[in-house]
């Protein structure tokens, strides 16, 4: 750690290669039809990146003089390009208008959807090196991870398999477990993330009964490479480049290992080392943009399985590999399809209890979607109406699942998106209805949702009501029985019977924003793993009540300083008198961030708190709340070279989200990035 800090201090004091006469460019991004602000748009000029705020405003500083191309893009809009001449030392302001162009994202259209919230790539990079770290705590998102395993998001107290993650229009959730691993997506390759919380399966399909996270990766990337090293033997590297119309990226990472953790007093107290927690992870992506967009993503991991601190193992290992190939058309006619293959192995030749094991599982799946979108206009309303059908099939085999572990599903969706302006007020409405049928269902299941939006000046409001349904994941249906675990042949699909949410957001002077959202609903047959009276574990259905709210604040007192904070309350309780909180769903989370940027320097500080979690369905023995502080400092050294130093868990809390699975505690990392001309 001391060597890393000394290296950071040495490089940070190096004098930058200052560009002659830097200039500033500011402006707003607006919707050409409604003339309302477009939030979350990515603005690129040369090496400088910015993301428009909720009022559509953006600022690009330190622009080098000369002619540069300004590029503005946002999911759901046609990209805009404009060549501008930058005069040394000048300040220029302009308005950029984008044409709405709804883009289907695996049964999802996020074009200016009411209630959607977005964050840009530059902010994501400062929050964490991968999306698991970057999104944890943002807008109430909680990322659940045990040791070096998959890092899956939870929204509004959901399970990790109830949130759909879509990358460049294609879902990346594991077809076997239903979970998405955000740690395999580098923050540096992302241009923006959009969150649509709540029951969204009507538009997005299975796995979206609690929300959808839409990830848009960067294109037109100049050749770049970065490498980093951190505490406890962690290190990694990434490279990416674009040669129009291709964009490629590769990354590699080694997880921390042999880090200290605190032994509970009931087990003797003191400290010990968390061994067999390390491993390697590799990922790659290739994107081809054009009339037909093609995406190829692959990943592989080989990691230790350290077990719990009360029952550790030094010899258990796990490995998994996956490949996703997807293609889709753009325009009013939608044809999209995916093919996905994955395999996983877990073994332990000398477990501390039980018999040695070596379990292997592999499988493949595919989806096909076809639809058409018509423009619509009536009584002053303008927008579109779309009809689409979708089919999917998956099949798995191996030691971890029973025979004939196959699953098929079909659906039909009708949706509309309409906008009108009445003087200074803009109204929007987006109704949708969906019918699903799948293997084992006795009859088709219908669900519906209506989103409405209102905007006047700097104030906007949203209201939504809907239902949702999703079948059990294959891992809950077809796992192989073992000691202490049993199949539940009566497992039913999860259904959001109804959910209502409302929100209001106000843009204040000096770039400040305040937003409030409230929600409530009932979920029938939520699937939760729980033991029976014999302590035999199995997936079981429970009725739950979901209610809560989110508060977000943002303040920009100066162009180089941004402050933000958020608080989320998510009560997800069993639908019984005095029902306790569902296990491992924190009731409250808080997040606060400070970002400062001036010239070649930038600094950030973040505080994140996760409330108590219950490790059981009885609501007893809660895990204590977690408070974490992260800090970062970076400097551009000129010639495309940037250095960043970061400290995670500054106060060394060594928190445990899951009982007996401690995190590494305070960790220092040093990152060098080089962008080539």
What attributes characterize this protein structure?
677 residues, Immunoglobulin-like, Maltoporin, Chain A, 2 domains, 22-stranded antiparallel beta barrel, 5-stranded mixed beta sheet, 5% helix, disordered N terminus
Query: Helix fraction?
Result: under 10%
CATH T-level topology of the largest domain: Maltoporin, Chain A
* Average pLDDT for all residues: 85
Number of E-type strands: 40
Q: What is the molecular shape?
A: globular
Short description:
The protein has about 675 residues and is mainly beta. It folds into two domains: about 1-100, Immunoglobulin-like (Sandwich), CATH 2.60.40; about 100-675, Maltoporin, Chain A.
Write structural notes for this entry:
Strand 18 (259-262) and strand 19 (271-274) form a beta hairpin. The chain has a 22-stranded antiparallel beta barrel. The longest helix has 11 residues, at 2-12. By secondary structure, it is mainly beta. Helix content is 5%, strand content 57%. It has 2 domains: 1-101, Immunoglobulin-like; 102-675, Maltoporin, Chain A (Beta Barrel).
List the topology elements:
Elements: H1 2-12, E1 23-31, E2 42-45, E3 48-51, E4 57-63, E5 66-73, E6 80-86, E7 91-98, E8 117-120, H2 121-127, H3 131-135, E9 142-144, E10 152-154, E11 163-167, E12 170-171, E13 190-197, H4 201-204, E14 211-217, E15 224-230, E16 235-243, E17 246-255, E18 259-262, E19 271-274, E20 279-288, E21 292-304, E22 307-308, E23 311-312, E24 317-329, E25 333-348, E26 357-378, E27 381-398, E28 405-422, E29 425-438, E30 445-456, E31 459-470, H5 474-478, E32 494-508, E33 512-531, E34 537-558, E35 561-574, E36 588-598, E37 601-610, E38 626-638, E39 641-648, E40 667-675
Parallel strand pairs: 1-7, 11-14
Antiparallel strand pairs: 1-4, 2-3, 2-5, 5-6, 8-13, 9-10, 11-12, 13-14, 15-16, 15-40, 16-17, 17-20, 18-19, 20-21, 21-24, 22-23, 24-25, 25-26, 26-27, 27-28, 28-29, 29-30, 30-31, 31-32, 32-33, 33-34, 34-35, 35-36, 36-37, 37-38, 38-39, 39-40
